[in-house]
Design brief:
heterodimer; A: alpha+beta; 5-stranded antiparallel beta sheet; 4-stranded antiparallel beta sheet; 25% helix; B: alpha/beta; 20 strands; globular
Chain lengths: 181, 601
């Protein structure tokens, strides 16, 4: 892992929370509702399974100053199905989004585009006579730059996930009872 | 509590003779399992209203030793469960059908949420096969109540009924208490499952109701208390909910620190105790708010620095360091930044602090406080001339005198609620029930009825305005059917008094939508087969109170009080605590009662 690959601690009010929750109906609603009732926007959200049965992991990006973030964290902990909350904003971490970009590229321009992808560390995952589906994993800014470069070729569709964040700590996140902040 | 001559007008339900629990392992309907769980949780009374989606549960109820109170509106059921819980410290239970039945509970659920009252609300839901189809009487009640419950559950299978209820009771009563909704689909009530019950303590992986105070923080608290010259205790609802009244008294005995209370904290420390300064905040005692601004240390115990308590945050207690003992970590630094947060159970924290404290006296600080009190410490209502008028403060003070401060009072919301807090001194916990956080008008009568089931032998008074009374007055009918005894003092000023007061003070005296006509409350009582009385002068108060106390069953008293009286002192919303509006010291058209320095009582 090189220094360039880790996201530096942020100076502005952007926040990233990693939240482990029980994998049950309605949990996402509870988490989202906590932001909604405070008129706070969720900038990006990712939810997915973990290697542990019954445990989902969320990465939430939002804007909040340090004291607001502390209260969001405390209120997230109050939700019964929430197992663990980490505000990783000030932690050294890897933070990634995945983007799929469909570009209207025929055979003549294809080699040129494929060459561009190499520069960005992106790759083609589907090829048709008149299109190319590109997969890119990286920081949102990198996806944005790639999209800018591809724009002249004609972007048909762009799908991007919410960020997934992971700290560089080797400590396994404890998900049991009594691990409140 | 139940009187013999109050024969219900409706025929009572036919009940099978055996009303007992089933042995474990029995296959039962989800509806029966519901009652098996409730009875095992210690429930013997529920408040509710039947309807289609909850009918299986009602049908199964007759076989169990549970008393059901049929309310006239589900809001009443939710406040009754709330009043029962506040008066007993146990979990209150209400029951309603899907759709409108469930949505009618919402105000009561929100009321319980803001005041941390343990409650389990059971609602019927349409069959799981039609969830989300806008079926008849379908409302997404778990969605609706998500932000106003401590937690909620949607049950779609009979085998989930018992474990869900166990969890619901555990969540409702543990840690900082709160309301829990359990929404049970009709097919989950009708389907069968085996009865299983495990008494082992529950452990939910993500739920952390308890917190251990850190020894270093406790040591720091002792240092701060010993270094302080002008310390002040702010005692909240947590003292009562956390059963810490004895610990608080011992703490005060050891440290000689004055105590002020939040509205919901009244009774957590004896109101007549010489170290009690009285209530803080918007309509708190002037000297309490002055003391807060003057103090060098605030010790907040089980309270949450509500905006009605702090006034303007920027100028709140500017000279004080703050210690905040609170069970809910989310309350720390929420409104007021504190120097020393101690997250833990207030009783546990006080128990740990007590042995470390050295006995102190604080004559200098008490001299300052006594000077602040000055003349205004005497609210000499008794000796004031009534000049043919009847003032709400007179009524409440007289009620306090005649009941010798020993009644359980349930107040509603508005001017009378503040006068009650000022003039009725509560010496014991759970002797004042009131909707503090949500400020729910219509709370008092049903909450008092619920409290009756928790306190069968206590004298219970409802103090309520003419506006709030009419919001839930339909429950008089429930009082009559159940033969319940509560005494209802309607402080009738013909206005929505607190809003009128704000209009007078802050909206140019434009009384928009506040004058209110009411029915003849005496006749209304009589129409329900209850006793109705009226007082229009001070001289009549003693007689009607005496007659009400001597009468069995519910009595409604219409106190026709001065119409445009104001609650003083007052910190305007968002103003500095030091900027209190005091009652004028001279009589005037709108301020007929003024405070004197004379204490002739």
């Amino acid at each position: 892992m090189t220094g360039m690959d880790t996201t530096a601690p942020e100076a502005d009010d952007r926040r990233t929370f990693v939240v482990h929750v029980e994998d049950r109906p309605g949990v996402l609603d509870r988490v989202a509702s906590l932001f909604r009732r405070r008129a706070r926007n969720i900038d990006s959200l990712h939810v997915g399974p973990t290697h542990e049965e019954g445990v989902s992991r969320m990465t939430i990006e939002c804007r909040a100053d340090a004291s607001q973030a502390k209260r969001l964290e405390a209120n997230l902990y109050k939700l019964v199905p929430v197992l663990r909350v980490d505000d990783v904003t000030t932690h050294e971490r890897v933070q990634r989004v995945l983007a799929l970009i469909k570009v209207a590229v025929g055979q003549t321009q294809r080699p040129e585009v494929l060459q561009l992808l190499e520069v960005f560390g992106a790759r083609a995952v589907d090829v048709g006579t008149e299109m190319l589906v590109i997969e890119m994993t990286g920081r949102p800014s990198q996806v944005k730059r790639l999209a800018g470069v591809l724009e002249p070729y004609g972007i048909v569709e762009l799908a991007q996930t919410g960020a997934v964040a992971m700290t560089r700590s080797v400590e396994k996140p404890e998900l049991g009872r009594g691990k409140a902040a | 509590m139940l009187h013999a001559d109050a024969t219900p007008t409706a025929p009572s339900a036919t009940r099978t003779p055996e009303r007992a629990l089933s042995p474990l392992g029995t296959e039962l309907s989800g509806a029966a399992l519901l009652w098996e769980a409730l009875v095992r949780e210690g429930v013997d009374v529920v408040f509710g209203y039947p309807g289609g989606a909850i009918m299986p549960a009602y049908d199964a109820m007759a076989r169990y030793p549970v008393h059901h109170v049929l309310t006239r509106h589900e809001q009443g059921a939710s406040h009754m469960a709330d009043g029962y819980a506040r008066a007993s410290g146990k979990v209150g239970v209400c029951l309603a059908t899907s759709g409108p039945g469930a949505t009618n509970l919402v105000t009561g659920i929100a009321t319980a949420m803001l005041d941390s009252v343990p409650m389990v609300c059971i609602t019927g839901q349409v069959p799981s096969s039609v969830l989300g189809t806008d079926a008849f009487q379908e409302t997404d009640i778990t969605g609706v109540t998500l932000p106003i419950t401590k937690h909620n559950y949607l049950v779609t299978k009979p085998e989930e009924v018992v474990p869900t209820l166990r969890e619901a009771f555990y969540v409702a009563r543990s840690g900082r208490p709160g309301p829990v909704v359990v929404d049970i689909c009709k097919d989950a009530q009708q389907g069968k499952a085996r009865l299983e019950w495990d008494d082992a303590p529950l452990c939910l992986p993500g739920y952390r109701p308890e917190h251990e105070p850190l020894p270093a923080d406790l040591e720091e608290a002792v240092r701060m208390i010993e270094a302080a010259e002008k310390p002040l205790i702010l005692a909240g609802h947590g003292i009562i909910e956390g059963d810490a009244t004895a610990q608080l008294r011992a703490f005060v005995d050891a440290t000689d620190i004055p105590v002020s209370q939040t509205l919901l904290g009244l009774g957590g420390f004896p109101g007549t105790h010489p170290k009690s300064l009285g209530m803080m905040g918007m309509h708190g005692e002037a000297w309490v708010n002055q003391a807060i601004q003057e103090a060098d240390l605030l010790i907040a115990l089980g309270m949450r620095f509500d905006d009605r308590v702090t006034g303007r945050l920027a100028t709140y207690a500017p000279k004080a360091k703050k210690i905040h003992v609170e069970l809910d970590p989310a309350e720390i630094d929420k409104n007021v930044k504190v120097d020393l947060p101690i997250v833990g159970d207030v009783r546990d924290v006080l128990n740990r602090l007590l042995p470390a404290l050295t006995k102190t006296t604080r004559e200098d600080w008490w001299a300052v406080l006594d000077a602040m009190k000055g003349d205004s410490a005497v609210r000499d209502i008794v000796s004031l001339p009534d000049e043919g008028h009847l003032y709400a403060a007179h009524v409440i003070h007289d009620l306090y005198r005649f009941t010798e401060g020993e009644a359980l009072v349930v107040s509603d919301v508005g001017q009378h609620q503040m006068w009650e807090a000022q003039y009725y001194k509560h010496d014991t916990p759970r002797s004042l029930l009131t909707s503090g956080g949500l400020g729910t008008m219509g709370f008092a009568l049903p909450a008092a009825m619920g409290a009756r089931f928790a306190c069968p032998d206590e004298e219970i008074w409802v103090v309520v305005g003419d506006g709030g009374f009419q919001m839930t007055a339909c429950e008089l009918s429930t009082c009559a059917q159940e033969g319940l005894e509560v005494k209802i003092a309607i402080i009738n000023n013909g206005y929505l008094g607190m809003v009128r007061q704000w209009q007078e003070m802050f909206y140019g005296g434009r009384y928009v939508a506040t004058p209110m006509a009411s029915p003849d409350f005496v006749k209304l009582a009589e129409a329900h087969g209850l006793v109705g009385l009226r007082a229009t002068t001070r001289a009549e108060v003693a007689d009607v109170v005496a007659e009400a106390r001597a009468t069995r069953g519910t009595v409604v008293i219409d106190f026709r009080v001065e119409q445009e009286d104001n609650v003083y002192p007052m910190v305007p919303s968002g103003a500095d605590l030091a900027d209190m509006i005091q009652r004028p010291h001279e009589g005037g058209a709108h301020n007929p009662i003024f405070e004197t320095g004379a204490d002739e009582e």
